């Protein structure tokens, strides 16, 4: 019996060794997990170089994040300055520019509309506007989502939402200032006759129907017309700083709104001349200075592209101012301050979509065309078609923005900006398609909104209010003694 047990024990031991032996051998042979390899000097240098030059982060097989932590102090500083400059364009730049062009009794109404728009769009941007424009989880090519509503996930210590080295919060604030000035441009066309309540209601609906979709389509990584950032874009167009998003949408919308609203009382029968060209000129200077934040700031860093945009902006603005005044001098016999101011703003508008894509020499030609073509639009289109674009928003921003988008397709240079490279072939056709989409969308959406407001609360101030002036009737204040 003892021998049997001994034999069984021996067989059990052999079986155990047969099964577990190879497993133990495999376990012993498997190498222990190693610690991640320390980044090489070359990897660290490549990340630092991208950081300093405001370039894309180097690709890594491991998918690791950048070795440089957080936003760049220099990039953030430039973006903060640019953001303040763009806000400065609306308050007080545009307010004074438009305020000088209306009659004395309506100055405060223009200022109130600029202030009201800034104060309404800002919390709206926090609530949902930023997310509908740039929502991180957005899949639609036409509108964002609510993934960043209430600025959820948008943090100062994170980078990437703005594609470069700036804080995500600075990207959101920079884009906010664009969202403020765009609807504010529209009020130039309807000045002196639209009720304040109607203005605010129109802007609120227009932001959802026009601005948020276009900011997403043109500047979001999933946008329908974002050629540089979306390989699957339906229209591979380019817009550096807002030719379509800002100037075309506001300009064409302004045309539709002023037609539906109707002409100012007394137009063609009594003088409706600007009350202060001094204020208009001061406002123009503020717009020009602020535009450096608008255009050069759109590089999202103080890099070579920003320097080029700064240069092209300067050249185009001055050339257009000279061209407008020269044509006016030839046709009317005198170069006016209003002509210089209008030409400068038109030049700034026309160079906006191409500021970071075209050469300085090209910007001079763009500026010359930007001074001449909008001049004829302002001087003759209104007479031919008999609409009352009070402060020439359509003639300058609608025509100028459209012209700029087209000229950007012609003069964009990959030597100036590498993003143009793969898009250059077929770019002119893409720009034309983007122009058509922008015009059609803006016109239809504006017409629907304007007619809806006209039906519900009315668009226009009463005849008595127009005669008295919107300052006193709408706001209970007077900018000047009448």
Describe the 3D structure:
This protein has 482 residues and is mainly α. It has one domain: Ammonium transporter AmtB like domains (Ammonium transporter fold, Orthogonal Bundle). The protein is 64% helix and 0% strand. The protein has helices at residues 2-29, 41-53, 73-101, 107-134, 168-186, 196-219, 243-261, 277-295, 304-332, 337-351, 360-385, 393-411, 427-456, 463-468, 470-475. α7 runs antiparallel to α12. Residues 10-30 have low confidence and may be disordered.
Q: How large a portion of the residues is in β-strands, by DSSP E?
A: under 5%
Uncertain stretches of 5 or more adjacent residues: 10-30
Give the CATH topology: Ammonium transporter fold
Count the helices. How many?
Answer: 15
What helical percentage do the residues reach? 55-70%
**Secondary-structure class:** mainly alpha
Topology order in helix (H) and strand (E) letters: HHHHHHHHHHHHHHH
* The CATH fourth-level homologous superfamily: Ammonium transporter AmtB like domains
- Corresponding CATH architecture: Orthogonal Bundle
SSE layout and pairings?
Elements: H1 2-29, H2 41-53, H3 73-101, H4 107-134, H5 168-186, H6 196-219, H7 243-261, H8 277-295, H9 304-332, H10 337-351, H11 360-385, H12 393-411, H13 427-456, H14 463-468, H15 470-475
